[in-house]
Amino acid sequence: MAHTSSTQALPASPTVPRHVAIIMDGNGRWATSRFLPRVAGHGKGVEAVRAVVEACAVRGVEYLTLFAFSSENWRRPADEVSLLMRLFMVALEREVGKMHANSIRLKVVGDLSRFDTKLQAMIDNAERKTAGNTAMTVTVCANYGGRWDVMQAVQKMLAARRAAGAAGTAAAEQDPDVFSEDELAQHLAMAYAPEPDLFIRTGGEQRISNFLLWQLAYSELYFTDTYWPDFGAEELDKAIASYQQRERRFGRTSAQLLEQAS
Ligand code: IPE
Ligand code: IPE
Ligand code: MG
User: Fold this and answer.
1) Which of 32, 118, 132, 144 is disulfide-compatible with 110, CB 3.0–4.6 A?
2) pLDDT score, position 93
3) Ligand 1, closest atom to CA 69?
């Protein structure tokens, strides 16, 4: 799993983050401040997604991860939840063709079992259709929670060990109580991606809200008051510029980094 500990190693080039992860927050407040219903903000938010996907692709970002619906968002009023689901379906229907034409791979991660079967099938189709694309990977986190992710990874790891035990392979000989970060991390929902270099949260709140808990260990954090529907290429560039000012030390000292660079 060379991928999983990317944020612990010094990146070769700090210019463009390889992986950008975004909590798209502030849709409701964007709408309310315009005396519009909250749902209007979600609709406008989909347009911002389109703009940011495009801007990331142009800038050479390899992985873009978007938090669309958290495991806690079911607590919202039923009509808002069902509208979000509908919007998700409409956006999939409309955007997947375009993404495919631009060689973008789409992944949807989270506990999808709670979604209706039609939406699950659409997600499955979209993922299959775009699976071979290489320009950029866009991951939508839907009914996702960082704690859910770690828990399901532990369950999968234990199941893999049991299967290895049943098959009598060499892995079965491991001490059942000993496992490494790498062994667990291979079972995280986004094991296919390096850890985020840059985390962005729009909408003014400065919290993680149960997003990628494991993977954000060493990401650079960027918070902006801009509401998600107003976020676009220009705002993305501000976040990247801020990222470029950071010194990623991963526990080392500045002097060590200078030494390594020379
Ligand atoms: C983010 O915007 C979108 C989702 C959580 C689905 P919000 O809907 O949380 O907007 P605010 O935070 O209420 O303004
Ligand atoms: C986080 O936003 C989840 C998404 C953007 C999908 P919320 O608006 O739900 O976060 P909290 O509950 O205010 O922390
Ligand atoms: Mg919010």
Assistant:
1) 144
2) 92
3) 6
Confidence of residue 105 (pLDDT cuts 50, 70, 90): very high
Pocket of ligand 2 (CB under 6 A): 23-25, 67-70, 72-73, 205, 207, 209
Helices (H), the chain: 27-32, 38-59, 78-101, 117-130, 146-167, 181-185, 233-244, 254-261
**Rounded distance between C-alpha atoms, residue 182 and residue 75, angstroms:** 34
Measured by CA distance, the residue closest to atom 14 of ligand 2 is 209
Q: Ligand 1 center to residue 211 CA distance, Å?
A: 14
Predicted TM-score (pTM) of the model is 0.93
How far apart are the CA of 146 and the centre of ligand 3, in A?
A: 17
**Each residue of 26-65: pLDDT tens digit?**
999 999 999 999 999 999 999 999 999 999 999 999 999 9
Q: What CATH number is given for 19-145+195-261 in this structure?
A: 3.40.1180.10
- What CA–CA distance (Å, rounded) separates 111 from 155? 14
